[in-house]
Amino acid sequence: MQANQILVGDCVELMGWLPSGSVDMVFADPPYNLQLAGELNRPNNTRVNGCDAAWDKFDDFHAYDSFTRAWLAAARRALKEDGTLWVIGSYHNIFRVGAILQDLGFWILNDVIWRKTNPMPNFRGRRFTNAHETLIWCAKSSAARYTFNYEAMKALNEELQMRSDWLIPLCTGPERLKDGSGNKAHPTQKPEALLHRCIMAATKPGGVVLDPFFGTGTTGVVARRLGRGYVGIEKDPDYARLARERIAAVAESCDPDRLEQRARREEPRIPFGWLVEHGLLQPGELLFDATRRWSAKVRADGTLISAEHKGSIHQVAAAVQGAPACNGWTFWLVERKGRAVPIDLLRQELRAGLARAE
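^ thats the sequence. predicted structure below, dont judge the formating
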């Protein structure tokens, strides 16, 4: 399958032409079926430019459910067995979409709340301000070995675990595409920051992202910037044209150092004894915890011995605390030039040195 292309036409039909199991991730921003009744005006009587396009209108819930089932089934066929699918929606549609996802065999991994920093007010004052949308992230089955770049998400969040509520502003300013009259080119253009997080979380460099409701190409822009391929499907030729122009202006990233996201569990295993073999630790050297309450000495065979315990770095760390288990790499420190240094830093230093030697 050729990546980095925009197909114009019906998404269900065109996804049927894609090879089975050919994409690594699907990001879908389908019609929400907003069911708008009449025009909405601000207090100053100016009209709110909402989404009243024909493509968002369905005869009834049955018609919307049939459409949803058809495109989700087509996307499932195109998705690799270990790929994942993201779908975004509002209270108008996301619960119906979620039920159909489960009916089709998808396994929901998370629902993510996109909390908007700048939501549109509720002008009529009859409801709460609708300040969020919901993303459902799912795998093809509970047994799928899907990609989740945990360390990348943690790094994006200042070394804290990424939560499932994301505070991201609406697409505004220079990022918002405008037509010749200065109006929004597309009523539901999503912020690039939202796509950046989804693609970074669930794909690897070189992977292919399918967007069956491509619009003006936000998914393609971010995929290109992150060194991923994309396949966009868009029914409206004018939106497709804008997407092509927008993506063409983005420089493709091909710097592997900038895109590398290797998870720690994928890195070469470094046994603790190798630190002794390579001279980063000496037999008899003292290790201690962050409070300096417990200590143990390094043995020549790569084990530790404390006043009452001996064994691996993990076994002794757990034993001195009376705990069932403990990660010795993060528990033990060693003194270097008057500073307490986690032994995990020595492991990283050795890993980097071995990689340079290859």
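DSSP finds twelve helices and 14 strands in the chain.
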